[in-house]
Amino acid sequence: SELVTTPNIDLIIETTKPTLIDEEPFSTTTETEQYQLSPVLPDVASTTSTTKSTTTAKLETKTTTKSLSFPTRASRVNPAIKLAAANLGGGRRSYQSSTNCSTDNSLQANPKCNEIKYQRPSSTRGRGSAHYSTLSGSEAPQQQTNRGTPPTRSRPTLKPSTAIVSETKFVDIYAYPARRPAPVYPQPTPDKTAAKCRKDVCLLPDCYCGGKDVPGDLPVESVPQIVLLTFDDSVNDLNKVLYSDLFEKGRVNPNGCPISATFYVSHEWTDYSQVQNLYASGHEMASHTVSHSFGEQFSQKKWNREVGGQREILAAYGGVKLEDIRGMRAPFLSVGGNKMFKMLYDSNFTYDSSLPVYENRPPSWPYTLDYKLFHDCMIPPCPTKSYPGVWEVPMVMWQDLNGGRCSMGDACANPPEAEGVYKMLLKNFDRHYTTNRAPFGLFYHAAWFTQPHHKEGFIMFLDYINKMKDVWIVTNWQALQWVRDPTPISRLNNFQPFQCNYPDRPKKCNNPKVCNLWHKSGVRYMRTCQPCPEIYPWTGKTGIRSSRIDNEIDE
Fold first, then answer.
1. pTM of the entire structure?
2. What are the two backbone dihedrals, phi and then psi, of residue 143, each rounded to the nearest 5 degrees?
C-alpha cells in the first residue's frame, strides 16, 4: 500500500499477516532539532485473522524544512534508521522498543531507544511466526507459541582482545628437525617396486620383515608383553577427566615409570595447552591430520599439508618438539597408498599405524616398508613400493565375543555390561601373551569411554595387566625402540628408551592463553601456552611463520 503523509488523516496499511510490535504509532515534532517519538493517539484498532490483518492508526505530523539529526550509533545501523524515518509506516522495522522512549525526552540519547526491532512477516506455509512485543502485563496481546524458524541474526563481529591475541612471534619450530634413525646396513632404492622381504638382507635395527617371528630370536618367556594404548582425534575438556583417571592414579610399569600412551591428534577442537600437559607427562604426540578427512585420493602434497602440517601445529602451539612427532595414523584408516608413504619417507616420519592385519593367531610384530607387505591389504590403496626405514605398527585385528573382527577396540561389538567388556579385552590380550607376545594394541577414540560400563570394564582390565611383572604399557615409539634393540625382561629396568626422565620437555601449561580466531563462520577459542596465531590454523595455512609446508621450503 502507498503511504501519503498529510496532517490529521486516517492511514490504512494492509499487509499479509503482520504481527504488531507496539500498539502505538509514531508522531513527529519539530520542538527540538532531533527526531523524537511522542505520545500516541489512543484511536488504534486492530483485527487479526489467519489470513489477513488490518490496522487502522491515526497519525499526526507537522512539516519541517530542517534536516533531522540522529543519535550516534554504529555505522552499520545508521542507514537503516534514516531509511525508516524517511518512509514512516512503509517498512517492516519499528524503533519503539519501550513506551518510555517516546514519553521521556531524556531517554532519546540512549541508543537502545533507537534500536531496530525486526518484525517477521506472517506466512501461510505452516512454519509458524515469530512475535515480539515490548508490552507487559494486561497490555500485552495474546501470543501464540513460536514453533517455527526464528528470525535471522546478523553475523557477529569478531573483536579479539589485544591483551590475549598478540602479533605472532617468530618461533623456529625446526630448531629440532624431524629425523629417522640413521641406517646401519645398505637399504633398497626408495620409491621403487618393493620386492619380497628376505630375512638374510633385512636386518635390525634398520629393517624387519614382520610376521610372527620374535625380533632377535629371543625365547618367548624373555620377551616383555608390550601394550600399546592409543587415542585418536582431538584433545580437549571432553576427554580430560578420562585421561586423568587412566594416567594419574599411580599406575606404573615394572621399572617404576608411569604408564604412557600415544595420542594421534587432529587439529580442530584441540586444546593445545592440554597437549603440552600430556607431552610433559611423558606421552607421545603423533599426527592425525589437520582436517580429519578421507585421504585415499589425496596427492602427495596434500598429504604433506595434512600430516606434516599437523606436526608443525603440534610443535608451534603444543610445545612438542618436531623431532618427537614421529608417527601418524590416517583418519578412518583411509590410507593413501604410495603417495602417503612417499610423503612419510620424504618428510622424515618414522612410522605409520594405519594398516589392519587380519591374521592374528599368532599376531604380527611391527615391520619396515623396505620390502613388500607380507599380509593382505584390508583397506586399499596400500603401499607397493619400497620406503626404507619407515616402520608400520600394524593394527592386529581383535575378535569380539561373537567371533567378529575389528581393527579398533571401539569398533567391536561390545558387551552391554562391564564384566563382558573385561572378558573381551582379556580374551584378545591372551592371544598375544600366550603365543609370541607381539605388541597388543588398545586402539580407541575417547568417545567410547562415555558409556560407564565401557570405562568400568576397561579399567578392570587395565588394573589386571598392570599388576603383571612382564607387561609394559608404553608408547609406539618406545615399542619400536625395543624391536630395533630386543632386550630381555631381565635387563629392561635399565633399558634407556623405557625410562621416564624428560628434562628437555616443556613444563605443564597451567595458565594458557585464549586465542579468539574466526573459522568456518564462527569464533574458535584455541588455548595454548605458546604465542597465539593471527589466523586459525588450517590445511596449508597454519599461521606459523617458520612453517616449511605453508611456505614450501625444501631442506
1. 0.71
2. -120, 150
pLDDT score, position 521? 82
DSSP conformation letters of 50-112: SS-EEEEEEE------SPPB-----TTTHHHHHHHHHTTTTSSEE--S-HHHHH-GGGGGSGG
Tell me: the pLDDT tens digits for 99-116? 455 444 444 445 455 544
Q: How confident is the model at residue 555 (pLDDT cuts 50, 70, 90)?
A: very low
Q: In the structure grid, which three cell numbers stand for residue 36, read together?
A: 523524537
User: What's the CA gap between 479 and 485, in Å, rounded?
Assistant: 10
pLDDT at 44 over 90: no
Among 445, 373, 374, 370, residue whose Cα is nearest residue 406 = 445
Helices (H), 195-271: 237-247
Mean pLDDT of 75-94: 50
Which ranges of 248-308 does DSSP label H, i.e. alpha helix?
Answer: 272-280, 300-303
With contact defined as beta carbons under 8 Å apart, do 312 and 544 qualify? yes
- Return the closest-CA partner of residue 228 out of 159, 283, 187, 174: 283
Are the C-beta atoms of 440 and 225 separated by less than 8 Å?
yes
Answer yes or no: are the C-beta atoms of 396 and 360 closer than 8 Å. Answer: yes
Least confident of 163-167, 279-283, 417-421, 501-505: 163-167
Mean pLDDT throughout 296-317?
Answer: 98
Q: What confidence score (pLDDT) does residue 161 get?
A: 40
Three-class DSSP category at 294: coil
Q: Please tell me what DSSP assigns to residue 34.
A: B
Residues 280-285 have a mean pLDDT of 98
Cβ pair 269, 313 in contact under 8 A: no
Mean pLDDT for the stretch of residues 340-352: 99
User: Can you list the alpha helix ranges (DSSP code H) found in 351-494?
Assistant: 418-433, 452-466, 476-484
> The domain 173-498 is classified under which CATH number: 1.10.238.10, 3.20.20.450, 3.20.20.370, 3.40.50.300?
3.20.20.370
CB-based contact 509:276 (threshold 8 Å): yes
User: pLDDT tens digits, residue range 211-250?
Assistant: 999 999 999 999 999 999 999 999 999 999 999 999 999 9
pLDDT at 170: 74
Which is it for strands 398-399 and 367-369: parallel, antiparallel or unpaired? unpaired
- Contact between 386 and 371 (Cβ < 8 Å): yes
- Residue 493 backbone dihedrals phi, psi, to 5 degrees: -60, -25
Element (H, E) at 310: helix 309-318
Q: Which residues pair with 54 in a beta bridge?
A: 14, 47
Residue 319 has pLDDT above 80, yes or no: yes
C-alpha cell at 488: 630381555
Reported in sequence order, the residue ranges of 146-271 that DSSP labels E, i.e. its strands, are: 225-232, 262-265
Helices (H) and strands (E) in the chain, counts: 10, 20
Domain borders along the chain are: 9-139, 173-498
